[in-house]
Design goal:
By secondary structure, this protein is an all-beta fold. The chain is built from no helices and 11 strands. Strands 2, 4, 5, 6, 9, 10 and 11 form a 7-stranded mixed β-sheet that branches.
Length: about 130
């Protein structure tokens, strides 16, 4: 059974930083593209970042580009999201997810239906 567990969320002041982790079990994530999404109160879940299997290619939503960094440590079967210069509008529940297809070549996955397994989410709250 595949499980993804996010951690690292919390309350931070605007301008601060957080690093989210997504630990996977039941699937070797080195063979999958990985992504992060977020869902703000009253809004639909939205794409944040994606990373290729090798980690050599990444993609970001315009709203986080230059502030967030996605990375992966396949030895730990974990994906990270480093979030800097946080803004109140970054407040949301953050989810990680794995690509549906194993061994896929790089092409950013920006829609939810391109992913199959999801974590339960971790809350990030940015105060002004």
């Amino acid at each position: 059974q595949v499980q993804l567990v996010e951690s690292g969320g919390g309350l931070v002041q605007a301008g601060g930083s957080l690093r989210l982790s997504c630990a996977a079990s039941g699937r070797t994530i080195s063979t999958y593209l990985m992504g992060w999404f977020r869902q703000a109160p009253g809004k639909e879940r939205a794409f944040v970042a994606a990373i290729s299997r090798s980690g050599g290619a990444t993609d970001y939503a315009d709203s986080v580009k230059g502030r967030f960094t996605i990375s992966r440590d396949d030895a730990k079967n974990t994906v990270y999201l480093q979030m800097n210069s946080l803004k109140p509008e970054d407040t949301a529940v953050y989810f990680c997810a794995t690509d549906r297809q194993r061994w896929n070549s790089w092409a950013s996955r920006r829609t939810e239906n391109e992913y199959d397994y999801w974590g339960q989410g971790t809350q990030v709250t940015v105060s002004s």
